[in-house]
Amino acid sequence: MHIVTAKEMYEIDRITMEEYGLDGRILMENAGRAIAKQLEGLLSLNQRITILVGSGNNGGDGFVIGRTMMNAGYSVRILQLVEDNRIRGDAQYHKQLFLSFGGTLLHWNESFDLKELEEETDVWVDAMLGIGAKGALRSPFSEVCTFVNRSERLTVSVDIPSGIPADEESGYTEEAIHADITYIIEAPKLSTFLERYASYYGRWEVVRIGIPNSAWSFIKRAIWSDQSVQQTLPTRSRFSHKGSHGRGFVIGGSQSMPGSVALTSSAALRAGAGLLTIGTVPEAIPSIAAQLTEATFHAMKGQNGWIQAQELDLSPYDSVVIGMGMGRAEETASITRQVVKSAHCPLLIDADGLYHIQHHKSSLRERSHPTVLTPHPGEMAMLSNQTISSVLDHPISISKTFAMEYGVYLVLKGPFTIITTPDGEQWVNLTGNAGLAKGGSGDALAGVLLTMMMQHETIQHALSNGCYLHGKSADYMVEHQHSDRDLLATDVIHGLIQIFRTLSS
Q1: Domain 6-219: top CATH class
Q2: What angle do CA 226, 10, 173 make, to 5 degrees?
């Protein structure tokens, strides 16, 4: 499923109409009918529907929804919030059809009584403003949106909740529609996955309206779906051996922070690593070994419980992860920078390792093997010299710019984790829940990703599947055994058992 900007969606519509010859009135008919079908499955015949329409295609969709629902036996009224001369083109065509079918059309004026309308409404359908709307809401949309938000009626938005932008733009959102459900037409827009705007959509579903598959060819942004996982997750041969599934090296930990590297290593083993070696200070080994009898250890030179500079032979390993629980002292940081230069295999840098390279990012471009960075928004802000709020508001564009500039794979962690390749292709992961907002979750993810990197044909598939599995395990555990309050990283690691069983069944 693709993810688009407003500009990209307009171009896809143009391609569909001009190059494929599919009339805009048919696309509007398809959109309205598809949403009406969803509404029919949601509502009972005794629920009264009021559709709020503005100008443009969004309003036109509203007229089709009204006609279709009315024809199906529902009580429907449409409140038009703009002057008649602003309803033009395809929307005007469908407005006339609605009227020809005997539809009830109300017109907004300054004395219009929304309270009276509410008393005769069970469901609001928001078809006021589409993906082209920008900036603060103006009258009468501001008043209507505020009223609908205060209403206790079910609210359904068409394509996008009125008042929020489609893209990574700052917008005045206080009065924007807070939908219970949004039926998105063809492809989610960027704002669906932004922390600032995601809650406005409520529960959302995508409806198809007949856009040809080839029209999407220039879009390099998509959701990583269940189907994507099924198609790309490797299967195991009955004749495979431990070497077939990767030799991984985990570098990290300290005397005071052995838990992080233990979580990474446990997750890597549970995710299916064939062989795993943990490189950490001698003081941390006993506590980790007590938890992980399957791992081997490389005792690294340390001082006061922290890893110190030293030579490392990384040639035996298929993939390396570094950074968890290492601390940020300069001598420890030198190990990370050394590994960046000497690891002739895929390398994942996480946690403290990201701080170690923040002033040495140019060395990432010099690597001949894939490099993966896994920051959370705070770490991304540090790496990109941005504020955290800027990263939260522009995660997709900032990720793309950084990944392409430094030639890295970037996993920007969050409620919607974004995986970006060095050539700017992007995937959004939808699995996971608030239970992952806890120390140790990122360490566990790093271990899952390490294993996936050793077992997939492409790094992108590895990272996308690793994020999916990690989040899916959290979802399973919250649904069946835990809440999003008490979930621990160790629970997520254990939950991988059921996820792999489900995927292989």
Answers
A1: alpha beta
A2: 80
Which pLDDT tens digit goes with each residue over 307-345? 998 999 999 999 999 999 999 999 999 999 999 999 999
Q: How far apart are the first and last CA of the chain?
A: 24
Residues that constitute the known binding site:
57-61, 126, 130-136, 159, 162, 325, 376, 413-417, 442-443
Tell me if 182 sits within 8 A of 127, measured CB to CB: no
CB atoms within 10 A of CB 252: 34
Closest residue by Cα to residue 154 from 243, 47, 247, 12: 47
Annotated binding site for K(+): 58, 126, 162
- All CATH 3.40.1190.20 domain ranges of the chain, comma separated, are 227-232+244-504
For 311-363, the three-class secondary structure string (H helix, E strand, C coil) is: CCCCCCCCEEEECCCCCCCHHHHHHHHHHHHHCCCCEEECCHHHHHCCCCCHH
- Cβ burial of 121 (10 Å; 0-12, 13-18, 19+) is buried
- Residue with the two structure tokens 């974004």: 418
Please, where in the chain does CATH 3.40.50.10260 lie?
6-219
Do strands 426-429 and 417-420 pair parallel, antiparallel, or not at all (unpaired)?
antiparallel
Q: Which fold has domain 227-232+244-504?
A: UDP-N-acetylmuramoyl-L-alanine:D-glutamate ligase (3.40.1190)
Answer yes or no: are the C-beta atoms of 181 and 204 closer than 8 Å.
yes
pLDDT digits (tens, 9 = 90+) for 392-408: 999 999 999 999 999 99
Contact 158, 355 (CB under 8 A): no
**Binding-site sequence positions for AMP:** 413-417, 442
Residues composing the chain: 505
Residue 465 · residue 230 · CB < 8 Å? no
Annotated binding site for (6S)-NADPHX: 57-61, 130-136, 159, 325, 376, 443
